[in-house]
Amino acid sequence: PGLLQDLRNNLAQGAQGLRLFELAHIFEADPTSETTARETGMLGILLYGARHDASWPHVEADMGYADLKGVVEHLLHFLHLPASVCRQAEEHPFLLPCVDVLAEGRRVGVMGRVKPALAEDFHARKPVWLAELDLEALWERHKKAKIAFKPLAVFPPSRRDVTVIAPASLSVADIEEHIRKMRIAILEEVTLIDLYEPKDSADRNLTFRLTFRKADRTLKDAEVDKEREKVAQSLIKNLGVRI
Asked: What is the pLDDT along the chain (243 residues), one digit of tens a residue?
């Protein structure tokens, strides 16, 4: 409520784009507590409107889910936590759509779009993107995080793209996780680079970029192509996608 009130106040002053955060506590019923309530420190993040300042040359664009996700991911990276996993959440009281943010398998918050009917009550005429993160859960994991250093790569990477045709019910995270679990020694990174959803189709085209590298020598095209084909065939066999 505090962030939405701040949103309304700033809109009344003519603000075109907002990035706000708030530190506060929430209270939940807890029969095991002496006070029958549990107090948890939370971080709220709100994004609204123009992505760029009006005085800076740019292509006009509004912030969206990707901007909010980027802020959350950068925060977890700053805390030395592994990349977050996003999972579609069940019904949420004020966010739609809403996703759970998982860190090391534990839910540490939610993020999504404030329901339009609620946003309109605060004079918002564009999508309002909001994240709530459990600071105590993040702090616990930050204290346990171990920082390791490794030499910078000397030899160049080799990249290959693989495009799969998959049903909308199959998430990008599931595909990426499957590829990583193959534990290909020379596979360094998996990144989604393109998404296409044809009209009148329940399927979507997902293009992933596979980055291969070896620490002690330059990779040969033949061995990279072999591993790329291995990934493609595994996705077809285990996840039922088409290439």
From this structure: 899 999 999 999 988 889 999 999 988 888 888 888 888 899 999 999 888 877 766 667 889 999 999 999 999 999 998 888 888 888 888 999 999 999 888 889 999 999 999 999 998 899 999 999 999 999 999 998 888 888 888 999 999 999 999 998 899 989 999 999 999 999 999 999 999 988 888 899 999 999 999 989 999 999 999 999 999 999 999 999 998
Reported as type and span, the H/E element at residue 145 is none
Which of 63, 31, 32 lies closest to 50, judged by CA?
Answer: 63
Place of tokens 């962030």: 3
The identity of residue 60, as a single letter, is E
Please tell me what DSSP assigns to residue 16.
S
Q: Can you tell me the distance from the alpha carbon of 223 to that of 4, in angstroms, rounded to the nearest whole number?
A: 54
Strands, sheet with 203-212, edge to edge from the N-terminal-most edge strand: 158-167, 203-212, 187-196
